[in-house]
Amino acid sequence: MATLEFHDPSGAIEVKRPFAPRVPSLAGKRLGFVSNDQWQAYRMLPRLKSLLEADYSGIEVLPLDAFPQGNAVIGSEETAAQVKQSGVDAVIIGNAA
Amino acid sequence: MTNAVAGLGLAPDAAMVTFPIEMFLPGSDISPVETRKREFYDGLTRWRSAFGADGVAEAPMIRVENASMEGAFSRANDLMLANRWGDGLPLWPPTRERVSWILRGATRPRGHRVGIFPPRGGVTTVETCAIALAMAGGRPEYLPVLVAAVDAFLDPASGSAQLQAASGSAFPVVIVNGPIGAQIRLNSGFGCLGPDPQRPAGASIGRALRLLQQNVGGALPGIGTMANYGGVRYTTVVFAEDEANLPPGWATHATERHAIAPDQNSISLAFANGATNIRRRGAKKETPEEDALQGMYRMADFMRVPNMPGLSGYEHGTPGILMLPGVVANTMARLGWTKASIREFLWEHSRVPAEHLRRAGCPAWLEIDSSKVVRESIALDPWPITASPDNFIVVVAGGGHPTNSYWLQGYSPGVVGRTLELPPAFDELLGEAERDLGPR
User: What SS3 state is found at B237?
Assistant: First the structure.
């Protein structure tokens, strides 16, 4: 019997930090959008905002322009700091394609 | 692999709602946002990562058995394809023996960390590079070039974090300077961007780099990379500058771009997404001066297009890499041309009339660019395809024939250089290559 043993070439994976904890429910929560303003985000995210507001009582969904928009700025530390400072419970980021 | 930010230390999965591309096009039907709204809600409330935040998960060894060695080899290749680790061409299974042999070309311990490969976030070590080089059919004396290229690739200045996943089909271009090019049989002459059994190093180094991009970085077509076409990705581009035929007074690419001493072994990494032959030579009774000038116009005219591949490297990167054969470079040098004057000419004569930009909708792309220099360039008419002539890369490479030059269209936020370290046994490795492959 011929045997070949070889390395898995995909390398190790290192997880250094967890994702943000999920919220138990969206009712009564404060949500924000971070938009790159591309790929129909200007249509899709407002639709999602309306759906959230219709489906959850007491929810507050910030307007799309509450935070800086566009690929050039949404990945910056400044934008992240603004999101944190705003006190939102959760954020939806879009759109990628 | 679904998460574009795994390389930042987050788990490779993420709470995402994905739709077919049609929904992201102008005028699309966006009603699926409503029909699938529950997925958004669950992503914010119930979703959990399948990966624990518990440090490093090591990749295992794989074992295959068969009645014959040929059968085992075949089974190993099938398995590598099934696991999405291959490129469709036969691979050398990276056994312990093979990888240890490749590691004779290492200058650092096998566990030395080179970086984290985006977007998947795979930990990349010297051993990971050796595994890829073994799979790609490489040899130990190639490893210093590969490790330096990977180190440059993973430098944030290269832009690889974005280009790995982007739709623009970027491929890395590795230009090697210094004596190592000829020593390890890298091609710098005829057919230097293609297969060459006499000078095979570039193919396996480039293939190994691509395998790392895919296997460690997660750049699988349609999953981790949205490259529409993915051309030149089997071996990417790895070649040496033809330093033996550099005209007197012309500096090497490494010296010009990275201030690296002429005899120092080095690599320079940029990204391109196009590769085009340009017929440079005249056909009739041109004087040498006319022949050179007409060729320069033909090259600049080809670059004068409003498709803006150079936007990502407008300020600090490159609009592309122009390859001139040594015989052309020497003729032009005798007429007074230098690499600098060639760059100046290309910059001036590849400028695009503003009207051409407007009719092609380019100003919108300029307006949304993250670079202030790009945004402000809207005011320029004609519009230069890059911020400075110095951004053009001009290298002497290609066969000793005057007819053609070659243009690797840049898609490169940066151009990153690295000097090479050589292992103590390098001369011994070159001797073994002579024994195995015949004289250079």
Answer: strand
